[in-house]
Amino acid sequence: MSNVDELEIDKFSQLAHKWWDKDSEFKPLHEINPLRLDFIDRHASIAGKKVLDVGCGGGILAESMALQGAQVTGIDLAKKSLKVAQLHSLESGVPIDYRCVPVEELAAEMPASFDVVTCMEMLEHVPDPQSVVRACAALAKPGGWVFFSTLNRNAKAYLLAVVGAEYVLNMLPRGTHEYARFIKPSELGRMTRHAGLELHTLSGMAYNPLTRIYSLNDDTAVNYLMATRLPAA
Ligand code: SAH
């Protein structure tokens, strides 16, 4: 019944105290954050909007969206991460409503409630990503935006996201990513269609290991972002 891998939640709980350390295992998320925030805001102009961040972790994206003027709710199932997120939002004076609830349960509790739903770097950690995509769509208001990002599944993604990041550059702890759970853009496209969402933009998010700089471009081979929209009523 439950769509959660407890080992995944444990992995993130153990690292929870490091969420806001920009030189920690979470460095890549801090580095890509301005890019994805800009991608989201360009499509959905989030100031004043009701935004839900699914799998929010320590709140890196959630806080940045709140700073941009959005009214943000963040959900995750790792309690320690949520605690860190809550403390950080108190310290920085950026109010965010953090809740420990499965996305499917929230969708049943308050369907069609958010102007924008974001679900970043989370689908590759759950047993049934289609169920998460469906719940995200159900939580969006008619005409609302739903954003996803995840890792593509091919030899290059395996080499860069697993071998490179976990074994060569030691950017991420070994075992952070399970290759079989990576999702091809065509597969995510199908999941979003099945959930009634319309694909708006697909963008690659590439890391250059030489310059150590991330950028948004057409190269969806490894990490990618998808902007989708629920048709207006
Ligand atoms: N979205 C954040 C964090 C990505 S890390 C960001 O991009 O900055 C992946 C997050 O997904 C972790 O916080 C982990 O606890 C969460 N997660 C994993 N499985 C989950 C599930 N079934 N339900 C909710 N959150 C989950």
TrEMBL record:
<keyword id="KW-0808">Transferase</keyword>
<dbReference type="GO" id="GO:0032259">
    <property type="term" value="P:methylation"/>
</dbReference>
<dbReference type="InterPro" id="IPR029063">
    <property type="entry name" value="SAM-dependent_MTases_sf"/>
</dbReference>
<feature type="binding site">
    <location>
        <position position="120"/>
    </location>
    <ligand>
        <name>S-adenosyl-L-methionine</name>
    </ligand>
</feature>
<feature type="binding site">
    <location>
        <position position="55"/>
    </location>
    <ligand>
        <name>S-adenosyl-L-methionine</name>
    </ligand>
</feature>
<dbReference type="GO" id="GO:0061542">
    <property type="term" value="F:3-demethylubiquinol 3-O-methyltransferase activity"/>
</dbReference>
<protein>
    <recommendedName>
        <fullName>Ubiquinone biosynthesis O-methyltransferase</fullName>
        <ecNumber>2.1.1.222</ecNumber>
        <ecNumber>2.1.1.64</ecNumber>
    </recommendedName>
</protein>
<keyword id="KW-0949">S-adenosyl-L-methionine</keyword>
<dbReference type="GO" id="GO:0102208">
    <property type="term" value="F:2-polyprenyl-6-hydroxyphenol methylase activity"/>
</dbReference>
<dbReference type="InterPro" id="IPR010233">
    <property type="entry name" value="UbiG_MeTrfase"/>
</dbReference>
<dbReference type="GO" id="GO:0010420">
    <property type="term" value="F:polyprenyldihydroxybenzoate methyltransferase activity"/>
</dbReference>
<keyword id="KW-0489">Methyltransferase</keyword>
<keyword id="KW-0831">Ubiquinone biosynthesis</keyword>
<feature type="binding site">
    <location>
        <position position="76"/>
    </location>
    <ligand>
        <name>S-adenosyl-L-methionine</name>
    </ligand>
</feature>
<comment type="function">
    <text>O-methyltransferase that catalyzes the 2 O-methylation steps in the ubiquinone biosynthetic pathway.</text>
</comment>
<comment type="similarity">
    <text>Belongs to the methyltransferase superfamily. UbiG/COQ3 family.</text>
</comment>
<feature type="binding site">
    <location>
        <position position="36"/>
    </location>
    <ligand>
        <name>S-adenosyl-L-methionine</name>
    </ligand>
</feature>
<dbReference type="Pfam" id="PF13489">
    <property type="entry name" value="Methyltransf_23"/>
</dbReference>
<comment type="pathway">
    <text>Cofactor biosynthesis; ubiquinone biosynthesis.</text>
</comment>
